[in-house]
TrEMBL record:
Classification via InterPro entries: NAD(P)-bd_dom_sf (IPR036291), Sc_DH/Rdtase_CS (IPR020904), SDR_fam (IPR002347), TR (IPR045000)
Upper taxonomic lineage: Eukaryota, Viridiplantae, Streptophyta, Embryophyta, Tracheophyta
Keyword tRNA-binding among UniProt keywords: no
Organism: Musa troglodytarum
Protein name: Tropinone reductase
Lineage: superkingdom: Eukaryota
GO MF annotations, alphabetized: oxidoreductase activity
Length: 353
């Protein structure tokens, strides 16, 4: 036990210090902390001298403890705000842009696969309206040229290549085109091109076709685009998946499997490439009126069955998907990463029979 001075006052301080030390020890405080807190004197400086140097000791112990904790919290917050500042300086999820820039894609460059029809067509137009320059592709040259002409008339900045995304050499050629068109920098990649049809008995060829069009193409294009997205300083990938990758749907098993894999690819890349300031997200549409769905939506029975489970009571339109894709690409969405967002009128959450 330490001596804290002589006489009655010394005895008083010794006893008080003793009681408070044991109380603190019971609370599990570290020795150093409660020695500091309860003025244990290892230097044998008389109490009145220590009190005159630091009047804080006149405070009751719980007030001193409160001050100590406040100091710890302050040091902690300084450390975490340094980490935060560093991540922001490196540009990771940086929101440090002016207010009007948060809702604009002026100066952004984008590659949207499968832009001549359906959802891809709507995405090209949506991004163009936000000010982005876009490169797109499809397998049909005549349809591609027709679309490019229409976009030119609307003053949209859109270029295009003929490309089958299921073919590796075509994908490499496409990315070369993108690199030279945009000077080596790509802000946005939308992996939209995909296909699916009901299949009961899936042949090996059909299986391979579905895998290479829906999954391998997205994986490989993401890989090829990585240096360009990184070079842009703030990249955004949006993969177009499907509700069939989240819930089970009869007769489109392999289609569903490719889309479920795309969802997981999204989550993994979101973690892996965040360090390069590339965000990766995914949209999962339900039934959307497009040329792909036209034959099915022409059947009354199919529409009735399909809309029965959709709380909004109707199928969606391509523009209702493209709006979400554009939002995910905007600087305003800079803290959204690794998400799979259903655009299905509420079908995926409907628990009613
Ligand atoms: N519509 C829906 O209800 C729905 C629901 C969930 C998910 N999705 C997904 O949304 C995406 C778009 O579907 P959509 O309904 O808009 O289809 P769509 O109407 O058939 O349009 C597909 C577009 O992609 C192009 N494309 C298809 N295969 C291609 C390939 N191998 N290489 C290059 N381009 C290709 C097509 O042009 P070419 O044929 O000339 O090549 C066309 O421009 C797909 O990934 C699909 O799985 C659609």
């Amino acid at each position: 036990m330490e001596r804290v001075g002589g006489g009655r006052w010394g005895e008083f301080w010794r006893r008080a210090s003793c009681c408070l030390q044991s109380a603190a020890a019971t609370l599990g405080r570290s020795t150093a902390a409660h020695e500091a807190l309860f003025m244990v004197d290892r230097t044998r400086v008389p109490v009145h001298e220590r009190l005159s140097k630091n009047p804080c000791w006149l405070l009751p112990p719980h007030h001193r403890l409160h001050r100590l904790n406040r100091r710890r919290a302050w040091v902690g917050s300084r450390v975490s705000s340094e980490v935060q500042k560093k991540a922001m300086e490196n540009g990771r999820g940086s929101s440090c842009v002016a207010n009007d820039e948060r809702w604009s894609l002026a100066g952004a460059t984008a590659l949207v696969t499968g832009g001549t029809k359906g959802i891809g067509h709507a995405i090209v137009e949506e991004l163009a309206r936000f000010g982005a320059a876009i490169h797109t592709c499809s397998r049909n040259e005549a349809e591609l040229n027709k679309s490019l002409k229409e976009w030119g008339a609307k003053n949209f900045k859109v270029t295009g290549s003929v490309c089958d995304v299921a073919c590796r050499a075509d994908r490499e050629k496409l990315m070369e085109d993108v690199k030279s068109t945009f000077g080596g920098k790509l802000s946005i990649l939308v992996n939209n091109a995909g296909t699916g049809k009901p299949m009961v008995a899936v042949t090996p060829d059909e299986y391979g076709f579905m895998m290479s069009t829906n999954l391998e193409s997205a994986f490989h294009l993401n890989q090829l685009a990585h240096p360009l997205l990184k070079a842009s300083g703030a990249g955004s990938i949006v993969n177009v998946s499907s509700l069939a990758g989240i819930v089970g749907i009869d007769n489109i098993t392999i289609y569903g499997a490719t889309k479920a894999a795309l969802n997981q690819l999204t989550r993994s890349l979101a973690c892996e490439w965040a360090k390069d300031n590339i965000r990766t997200n995914c949209v999962a549409p339900g039934s959307i009126r497009t040329p792909l769905m036209e034959p099915l939506l022409a059947m009354e029975e199919f529409v009735a069955k399909e809309t029965y489970r959709i709380p909004l009571g109707r199928v969606g339109e391509s523009e209702e998907v493209s709006a979400v894709v554009a939002f995910l690409c905007l600087p305003a969405a800079c803290y959204i990463n690794g998400q799979v967002i259903c655009i299905d009128g509420g079908k995926s959450v409907n628990g009613n029979l």
